[in-house]
Design brief:
The complex is a heterodimer of chains A (564) and B (219). Chain A has 564 residues and is of the alpha/beta class. Chain A has 17 helices and 18 strands. Chain B has nine helices and seven strands. Chain B has helices spanning 33-43, 100-110, 127-136, 144-148, 150-154, 161-172, 180-187, 194-198, 205-214; strands at 2-9, 19-26, 63-66, 69-72, 81-85, 92-94, 97-98. Classes of the chains: A alpha/beta (564), B alpha+beta (219). Chains A and B meet through α5 of A and α1, α2 and α3 of B.
Chain lengths: 564, 219
């Protein structure tokens, strides 16, 4: 099968904010930086979905030390302390540096006196809230990228990382538009493929976030860490389809008198956190909402009810000014009265972020030479649970750090070509699936089955029985359905289902890794909560779960003491 | 309800000209056009090509024409009869998929100075300017405005279109006046208002941007 080879200094897989931040410094310095993304826009990915809040040290009485302590405490002390320190120390500078790229931040929100809210887990107000939400960063960065001449290749589906003599040298993929196979070869390969929300039935994430990077990294033998740590938000839109899963906010958003009710009219938070009630941390409330609905106490629409009516009027004013998009979504979904907090409304919990991923050091290096990781696909920074606003901070801090350093690394290296045999084998395998006759298993069926299992068994509340059943279900899909994957039609041009086939084969691997890690941890910590082990066990479990592909393709599990 | 969809089909690899194909599906009330297209693809004809990314009205990638009006497929509710076509006046890759990058690169080629950053981190800006700038940079580049512009349709090689004018307005915000060349480009706009009428954003930034630009002093 023919393919076209493409050489560059740096290859970045992924098209979100982390990819952009990592691409800009080397590109500005004249390096040839190629960015490949499944999407047609750069910058998109997870970043364009974000609510626009990014946390840093802004207040005069705050400090990186205080921020670091909050990050560690939020992470249940599973965070890599060196990475957490970098995040805390470089947060402010990384955000302010964005203006060097030629777009204005929402300056009013940057004024420390305007920092209106303390997000839970933070000792002080730290949130810079951009009224454009994620879009502001995305479009500002995208103009900077066009200026620097980054080689952006839209709608390229990356399928496999390529290695030679124990180092990663590039990636194999195909063009969605033409169907042609492409081989990218570079001195340094950066994985910036974002999170795995699309593995879950209900998520704030875009449909493209199928966790491709974790599976591709896994296939090369990269170490993955904290794969059990999935963050859920408590309150998301329950309908319509065009909004389902999108974040509404925390209860504190509506003020300190907000109340939650189940379908029976009970204030159920009494059962889960009698001290803090509706103002418990997001993982506790998400778990409560999930459990109430799952155990049949939801509303007719399978939701819980939020009552914001007893709010402080000044808060309503602030929300309309700083969250115009949420206000307009409220109006659209629930009507004017709910948008003005005059009536209760329904909400459901939703998957939001993934703390685990490719294990990295302070230079964003993974366990395999030549392969770097940045953004949500990298793991270990946030430990067992991420603080609000730190996902965007992460991409600004580590994206820039990697962008500054990757050229230093690449300049010392010669370009190593991929192995011809590995390339041919990978392409042949994919071609074999693509040429299967109709009548097999369509990828959408596999994806839907994965979404249901992950939501039911690896959601905000887990237990051994459910997880074992879930893992067995996933393995069944892998052994029985995946080998029968077939397209509904075989045309070459813009055959979106080819992308879905690749996504399905990667999703199942990522899902099994999450499931395996979740079953291992016999305690509850941060976002990983199990009813059969509801407390944290510092004596035995201050350690990170590390997964690596074994010699026979099995999941090799090891543990690393936390803080090392 | 039963929904009848007439969908534009064109594969440049094999077709001489475009045609419409009809599909009938069962749809829930309140279902979106995107979800209907996915049903057609899944159950009837998986050779249908259409583009989407987030599916949740955030990324702007799924813009199409429905019953002669442009919209985001993920945000448009299904009706019993719909004619679905790609955005007009933009190069078609296949079926409902247009070449976004070609359309955006056209603006960059025509007016590279649009990308020149005049924004500097050390600038002090008045509060109302920040507010306007924030508003003007809230576009999600769905290209709907470009597709309906009559000037762009007639002069594709000369005009930057509404999106280009928006970019110009963004950079011009921090300048007292704009260069003559850009002023001439802006004046090609006929102020017909078609672009800002169809903009899917709830904020009327496009209208404000273009009107503001046409009042700007020249250097």
């Amino acid at each position: 099968m023919e393919f076209t080879k493409h050489i560059s200094d740096i290859l970045i897989v992924g098209g979100g904010g982390a990819a952009a931040m990592a691409a800009l410094p080397p590109s500005r310095r004249g390096a040839k930086v190629t960015v490949i993304s499944k999407e047609s826009s750069f910058v998109g990915g997870a970043t364009i979905m974000s609510a626009g809040g990014t946390c840093a040290v802004f207040k005069p009485n705050d400090s990186p030390e205080t921020f670091y302590k909050d990050i560690m405490r939020g992470g249940g002390y599973l965070n890599n302390p060196n990475l957490a320190k970098l995040l805390a120390e470089r947060s402010t500078q990384a955000i302010l540096k964005l203006e060097d790229y030629g777009f204005l931040l929402d300056r009013k929100s940057l004024d420390p006196s305007q920092m209106i809210r303390r997000s839970e887990g933070h000792s002080l107000p730290r949130g810079y809230l951009d009224r454009r939400e994620g879009l502001g960063f995305c479009h500002g960065l995208s103009k900077a990228l066009i200026r620097t001449g980054v080689d952006f290749r839209p709608e390229i589906v990356a399928c496999k990382l390529l290695s030679n003599h124990g180092r990663v040298v590039g990636a194999m993929g195909f063009s969605l538009v033409t169907g042609d196979y492409l081989v990218f070869n570079a001195k340094a390969v950066i994985m910036a493929t974002g999170g795995l929300g699309a593995l879950y039935k209900i998520t704030t994430n875009s449909e493209t976030l199928t966790g491709d990077g974790y599976a591709m990294a896994w296939d090369t033998g990269t170490e993955l860490v904290d794969m059990e740590m999935v963050q859920f938000l408590p309150l998301a839109f329950p309908y319509p389809n065009s909004r389902k899963g999108l974040n509404i906010g925390m209860c504190s958003f509506f003020g300190s008198e907000t109340k939650l009710y189940n379908g029976l009219g009970e204030r159920y938070m009494l059962k889960y956190d009698p001290k803090r009630m509706e103002f418990a941390t997001r993982d506790v409330v998400a778990r409560a909402n999930f459990t109430e609905i799952r155990e049949g106490r939801g509303t007719q629409n399978g939701a819980i009810v939020v009552d914001p009516r007893a709010h402080d009027p000044s808060l309503l004013d602030i929300y309309k000014r700083y969250h115009p998009h949420i206000y307009s979504m409220f109006k659209e979904v629930f009507g004017e009265r709910v948008a003005n907090w005059q009536e209760p409304f329904e909400a459901i919990p939703s998957q939001h972020f993934f703390m685990g991923g490719m294990s990295i050091n302070e230079k964003c290096e993974t366990s395999i030479p030549g392969l770097f990781a940045v953004g949500e696909v990298a793991g270990g920074i946030h430990g067992a649970n991420r603080l609000a606003g730190c996902a965007l901070t992460e991409i600004f801090v580590f994206g820039d750090l990697l962008g500054q350093n990757v050229m230093l690394w690449a300049n010392k290296e010669d370009l190593t070509p991929p192995l011809e045999s590995e390339v041919q084998e990978a392409i042949d395998q994919l071609e074999e699936i693509f040429s299967r006759q109709q009548g097999g298993v369509r990828p959408s069926r596999i994806k839907q089955a994965i979404k249901n299992i992950m939501w039911d068994c690896f959601g905000p509340s887990r237990n051994e029985e459910g997880m074992k059943k879930g893992l067995a279900g996933l393995k069944h899909i892998q052994e029985n359905d995946v080998p029968k994957l077939a397209l509904g039609s075989h045309q070459a041009r813009y055959n979106r289902e080819k992308m879905e086939v690749v996504e399905a084969t990667l999703m199942i691997k990522t899902a099994i890794l999450v499931a395996t890690a979740a079953l291992c941890r016999t305690e509850s910590r941060g976002s990983h909560y199990r009813t059969d082990f509801p407390s944290s066990d510092d004596k035995n479990w201050l350690r990170n779960t590390v997964l690596k592909k074994g010699t026979k393709g099995e999941v090799d599990i090891s543990y690393r003491r936390a803080g090392d | 309800m039963r929904a009848k969809l007439g969908i534009y089909r064109f594969d440049p690899d094999s077709d001489e000209e475009a045609r419409y194909e009809t599909f009938e599906i069962d749809a829930d009330a309140g279902e979106t056009v995107l979800s209907a297209l996915r049903k057609v693809h899944e159950d009837y004809d998986s050779s249908l090509s259409f583009r989407f990314a987030c599916g949740k009205v955030k990324c702007g990638e799924c813009s199409i024409m429905v019953n002669k009006s442009p919209c985001l497929a993920c945000n448009r509710k299904i009706e019993p009869e719909m004619i679905i076509a790609p955005l007009p006046n933009l190069p078609v890759i296949k079926d409902l998929v247009i070449d976004r990058n070609k359309a955006i690169n056209r603006i960059v080629e025509l007016a590279p100075s649009l990308l020149e950053s005049k924004v500097d981190g050390a600038m002090t800006l008045e509060s109302h300017i920040i507010d306007t700038y924030i508003k003007l940079t809230s576009c999600f580049e769905c290209l709907i405005c470009q597709s309906v512009c009559p000037v762009l349709k007639n002069k594709p090689g000369q005009f930057i279109g509404p999106l280009g004018l928006l970019w110009l307005a963004q950079t011009a915000l921090t300048e007292a006046n704009i260069g003559k060349e850009m002023r001439d480009m802006a004046q090609m706009c006929e102020s017909c208002g078609m672009c800002w009428d169809v903009c899917p954003s709830e904020v009327k930034f496009l209208e404000d941007a273009i009107k503001g630009l046409l009042n700007k002093e020249t250097r």
